[in-house]
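Archive entry: two folds, one per protein. Generate the first.
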Amino acid sequence: MQDEDRVLGLTRNGQAKAYPIKILNWHEIVNDKIGKQPVVVTFCPLCGTGMVFDAKVNGQSLTFGVSGLLYQSDMLLYDRKTESLWSQIKTEAVTGPLTGARLKLLSSTQTSWGQWKKKYPQTLVLSQKTGFHRDYDRDPYRGYAISEQLMFRVKNRNSDFHPKERVIGVDFDGTVKAYPFSELAKAKQPVQDKLNGTPVTVTFDKKLQTAVIRDAKGNEIPSVVGFWFAWFTFHPDT
């Protein structure tokens, strides 16, 4: 791991874990536990969205796999118990016996490995010994994040920002809002805002390209970092 490598970081139950994006780019899903809590760590390379969910649904722990299918250019997971298909960004089962069931989004952070290990020196990190022969230092999507082209069509498009502009998006009790990194970079830090009348603070580190949303008590609010086009196509009223 190099300090500049990107990770999806998770802290819960007194533990810290880091999942390198260069591994998630290839495998997209990690079934894991943090403490005793089962979680599913997901990353969609086409949308740039890293999202961690509680793996318990309706009281039962599920494990998930990559279906190879897409909805609105976003990955569809499947659970191995019922083979229902789940939309990552929508956080919902869209076909199968569990249609309409929701996944609970947990707080996670997309940041650099150097920053994460500095903040959490006792962190665990996902090993490259995955059982598969992959060159994890090779990015199979190289150049995609700067291109204006999408690989697949999506329903809703908006040209206010570059389609691959990174945003941190939040759905707070039905209020949906996105904070583009380019706008956060111009703003005085931290950014004070309100969601449904509730004060929140958005902190952005331009150098580390890391954004976090917290409530008035300093607790991290579950949010999604990803490409603008992906956030907008699922949340056209954002």
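Generate the second and append.
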Amino acid sequence: MDEFAFAAPQVSIGSLLGTRAVVRWYSQNFGAHDLVTKVKYFGVGGQHSISQYFTTLPFDLALGAFYQELKLSDQLIDSKTYHVDLTGSKSYSILQPYGAIGFDSMDMDVLYEDATNPGTNVAVHFDRTNHIHLTAGVQAKLAFVLVHAEANVAAINGLAVGLSFGY
């Protein structure tokens, strides 16, 4: 498998004293004949406005910390990811461009059955990896809908789009 992608629901609650909390989750059981029989995904994090303490800044600044866990099948893949970042943004009418510099840390274990020797399990622990994470994006506030698109340069580069209702 070269790639594995799925959409996960996210609930964001904020802003209380300049703090926003985020929870993401996804869980699905598949058939026993599939390579991936089960997916469990959970993420939690938060972001706190630090520009509220520096009223002369010409842009908004926030500090964030996030944790994610992804499990495929019972023990096929078990990964844990940590992310911290500093995000800057500036609002212009309905558009808000933003950028962030962050740090990612990932730990992963894999357990699978050796196809050439049935009944023999192979366990692999990948050493923790750490990487810089850069983000550039823009969001648009349209009535009760928030749309965003971003590009990420990190250990794995990616593009993300999102749609939120109420903001």
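Annotation attached to the second fold: Residues 45 and 115 are 39 Å apart (CA to CA). The radius of gyration is 19 Å.
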